[in-house]
Write a structure and sequence with these properties.
The protein is α/β, with parallel strands linked by helices. The protein has one domain: TIM Barrel (Alpha-Beta Barrel), CATH 3.20.20.80. It is 43% helix and 15% strand. The protein contains 11 helices and 10 strands. The strands form 2 sheets. The protein has an 8-stranded parallel β-barrel with strand order 3-4-5-6-7-8-9-10, surrounded by 4 helices. Helix 5 (155-168) runs parallel beside helix 6 (189-205). The longest helix has 45 residues, at 3-47. The protein starts with a helix and ends with a helix.
Length: 343
């Protein structure tokens, strides 16, 4: 073979090798880059969800983040802040965030004097919102109607409360307002809950134009299918559904499915895997069915409750006296199922 031919062959081989390397780079690099970006996003979400996702809003039936991407928060609800104020502390929230990938805290304040409604309870809610903000977590301010049943019973107090809270936190991008936890008894969406919700929404919107407002439904926030027939008008309004897996099964899951198919944005702001009393045996099979349904419809959720009360729904063992730094061994059976399992 001549020297000229050999030289030409070497150049052809060299060019082919360069082309091969370039083709591999074109194929491989974007995949690696995409993988790295997804890891960074997940890490940012775990440590500082608010920084990563910003102010949340409602689009269609879903929550979306600042980039318009579907977002689901994984939350924990306090018990009544007047009864268990010791768990509303920055270290407790940080433990939930760092060890158990929790990115939302629901601050439950009962609305009657006998259930602890007071200035001190309101201050605990304010502290909780600030701790969540500092940790990059979302916060739900929960007006925890329960024994009062009809939200209009304490409407004047609710107006005063949400006027103050929306004024105080209007610049916060992590705050949501749950305006009536569980309407119950002889109340209906049309006659009682919807007129109340219109009034409270108007009060909040005078100060906070964008924060998500969450509205309960009749029968302890189960009848979202009824609410879906005549929802409120306005932006960034969602509706709560609550379930306790040992009590609420296929019939209640069907209510959720019906509501979502009608276009209602739903958030599960409270649930547990025991019965509706917050106690009793755990039904993990029903709970897992619920979690699959929530995943299917991209629905966010908060588990009840952050305390060591001697009941099945408490996430902390009754024998545990820690108020932060909870290890797996400190968790109740419900706590282990929720906090230590990927749903």
């Amino acid at each position: 073979m001549s020297k000229t031919l050999k030289g030409l062959l070497k150049r052809v081989i060299a060019i082919n090798m360069i082309l091969a390397i370039c083709l591999c780079s074109v194929y491989v690099m974007p995949v690696d880059k995409a993988d790295n970006n997804s890891v960074k996003l997940a890490s940012a979400s775990a440590k500082n969800a608010v920084r990563a996702h910003g102010r949340l809003r409602i689009r269609g039936t879903r929550i979306v983040d600042k980039n318009g991407k579907t977002f689901r928060f994984r939350g924990v609800s306090t018990h009544g802040v007047a009864w268990f104020p010791q768990y509303v502390n920055k270290r407790a929230f940080k433990t939930l965030r760092d060890k158990y990938n929790v990115n939302c805290i629901r601050l439950a304040m009962y609305t009657t004097k006998q259930d602890g409604y007071s200035k001190a309870a309101r201050q605990t809610v304010i502290k909780g919102v600030k701790y969540a903000k500092q940790l990059g977590m979302y916060a739900i301010i929960d007006w925890h109607i329960l024994n009062d049943g009809n939200p209009n019973t304490n409407k004047k107090k609710a107006i005063k409360f949400f006027r103050a809270m929306s004024k105080k936190f209007k610049s916060y991008n992590n705050v949501m307002y749950e305006i009536c936890n569980e309407p119950n008894g002889n109340v209906s969406w049309k006659s009682d809950i919807k007129p109340y919700a219109k009034k409270i929404t108007k009060v909040i919107r005078k100060n906070d134009k964008r924060g998500i407002i969450i509205v309960g439904s009749s029968t302890w926030s189960q009848d979202v299918d009824v609410t879906a027939q005549s929802p409120l008008k306005g932006k960034n309004i969602a509706y709560s559904l609550h379930f306790y897996a040992a009590t609420h099964k296929d019939w209640n899951r069907q209510k959720l499915t019906t509501a979502v198919k009608k276009g209602l944005p739903v958030i599960v702001t409270e649930f547990s895997i025991c019965d509706a009393s917050g106690n009793g045996s755990l039904d993990k099979k029903s709970a897992n069915t619920w979690m699959r349904l929530l995943k299917k419809y991209h629905i966010s959720y908060c588990a009840w409750s952050l305390c060591n009360k001697a009941e099945s729904s408490a996430l902390i063992k009754s024998s545990c006296t820690k108020t932060y730094g909870f290890n797996k061994s400190d968790l109740s059976a419900a706590g282990k199922w929720y906090l230590c399992k990927k749903h």
